[in-house]
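Bug #77: duplicate submission created two jobs. Keeping one. Sequence:
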Amino acid sequence: MADRIIPIIFLSFMAISSMVLYVVALIIWLATVLFDKRLYILHYFTSFWASIYTWVMPAWSVSIEGKEHIGKKTYVVVSNHQSLLDILVAFRIFFPFKWVSKAEIFRIPFIGWNMTLNRYIKLTRGDRKSIRMMLEDCNKALAGGSSVYLFPEGTRSKTGAVEPFKP
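Kept job's structure:
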């Protein structure tokens, strides 16, 4: 019974908190967009927002190692994608970056809208024009001093083994 109740409570918490936290994100965006060109403040708030979910779920234990090696440089962060938790855990680094994410995620109420506020980078899979635009947006982000975070396999690994990278 608990194996059904806990996910229902957790998903309800995520839905309600996302509504509230999106409003806070919108206020932060409005207050900082003119002087925080890379949207670092909003991204750090988004990192906090995502981290809440890993902090409150009792079954999840997350530890971050090696964060001290991240400097004040611009990076292209490449990661394999084994579960939906990868995204929440990546935010726990509290390091500013622009996600590359499939376009469908941007349509999710509150969370996707926040991704748009953060100017994360959209990609429509299989669409050559979108792939070209994504590469241009990544180059602009990097040239502007923002790091880029992507999953080059293009989807979650079903086996845990690293799949071939998308071109």
